[in-house]
Amino acid sequence: MGLKDSPFEWDVHFADVQTLNEWIMAGKLDVAKVSAQVYPKIEKEYRCLGCGGAIGYGCGPLLLSSSSDSFDDQSPTVLPGANTTAALLFKFWYQKKFGTKPGLQFALFNEVYEGLLSKKFVQGVTIHEHRFTWKRDGLHMLQDLGAFWEQETGTPIPLGISVARRTLGDETISKVETEIRNSLRIARSRPNLITPFIDEKAQIEDKKVMEAHINMFVNDFSENVGERGKAALENLWRLSHCE
Predict the structure, then answer these.
(1) What is the value of pTM for the model shown?
(2) Catalytic residue (choose from 128, 130, 140, 213)
(3) Helix, strand, coil fractions of the chain, as percent rounded to 5
(4) CA 218: distance to chain centroid?
(5) Annotation says 241 is catalytic
(6) Considering only CA atoms, which of 191, 210, 186, 212 is closest in space to residue 200?
(7) What is the pLDDT of residues 168-197, one digit of tens each?
C-alpha cells in the first residue's frame, strides 16, 4: 500500500479515532492521524504535520437527542471517546452554557449513533458521516458544536491532525509530508471520488453521503494547514491544556 515509487513500505492499520488516540499516546505508531486535541499529550514524542489533518468550516460534531429538542441535564451525554476533539468541543460548549461539569458516558462513534436511533441513549455527540444522516433518521439537533466553536473563536474547526514520531528525523518526516500531499492531490483529482476501497471501508452505503463526507473533510486545509489552521489548532491546544 502506498504511492508508486514511494520511499516507504507502509504497514497500515485502520481503527476508530479513540483507538488511534490511545495507540499514539502509547507510542505504538510512527505516523498516524489522530484527534487534534490529543497533541499536547504527545508533542514531546511526535511532531504535528502540516498536512493530512481534518480542519474546516461547518464540519464539526453534532450534539443530538434521540427524542427531544431540549438538552436533558439529568442524563449523561454519550461521547465518541474521551480523547476525541468532539469530547473537548462538547465540554467547551457545556462550560459556556451551564458553567459546570457534565455527566459523561463513552462509546465508539458508530455505537453513539446506533444508541440514539434505538433510544438506548438520550443524547450524544456524533461525528463523521452522521452529520448528513441525523435528520433523515429522525434525530433532534441540540447544538452544532462546530458552529459554536467558530462563533466563539473566529477560527475554523480543528478536528484531526497527522503526526509523525520525532525520532524519524527531519528528512524522513519531510518525505512523509510530501507523500501525504501527493496522495491527496491524486485523490482529489479523480473523476470518481468513491473507489472500491472507500466503499469497502465506509460505515454507510449511501454514495451521496460518502461524497458529501469526503468533500467536507478533505479540503485545502488537508494539503496545507496554513496560518488559519495553525491559529485554530493553537486555540484548541490552549483549551486542552486547561482540562
Answers:
(1) 0.90
(2) 128
(3) 45, 15, 35
(4) 11
(5) no
(6) 210
(7) 999 999 999 999 999 999 888 888 877 777
